[in-house]
Amino acid sequence: MKETVRPDELEQLLAGEKPPLLLDVRRRSDIESDPAMIPGAQWKDPEKVAVWGRDLGTYDVVIYCVRGGSVSRTVQEKLREMNISSQFIEGGIDAWKQAGKGMQKP
């Protein structure tokens, strides 16, 4: 599995027969300032990945932060240490928005 996924690739995965579990791992301050999410995403506190990561089971997981940088990479590393297959969105939620993809308001 590739380390990253582009917004157009993610859109296809989400529409597929077995969509990945989509997790918004933006920092609490980032999600409080802009709570809109990619449709179907669940917010998970990136600082508590060791706790919630244990409950993910065998899902394929796609995560995203604001720009697809250090937060996504850190969470992905922790998930992989738990043997959880994961990718993150290249460019984060910003790239998703710039690609004109839909957003879900809280």
Describe the structure in your own words:
This protein has a five-stranded parallel sheet. The chain has one domain: Rhodanese-like domain (Oxidized Rhodanese, domain 1, 3-Layer(aba) Sandwich), CATH 3.40.250. Strand 2, helix 2 and strand 3 form a beta-alpha-beta unit. It is α/β, with parallel strands linked by helices and 106 residues long. Helices cover 36% and strands 15% of the residues. The longest helix is centred in the last third of the chain and has 12 residues. The protein contains five helices and five strands.
Sequence-ordered SSE layout with sheet pairings:
Layout: E1 4-5, H1 7-15, E2 21-24, H2 28-33, E3 42-43, H3 49-52, E4 61-64, H4 70-81, E5 86-89, H5 92-98
Parallel strand pairs: 1-5, 2-3, 2-4, 4-5
Core attributes:
15% strand; 106 residues; globular; five-stranded parallel beta sheet; 5 helices; 36% helix; 5 strands; alpha/beta
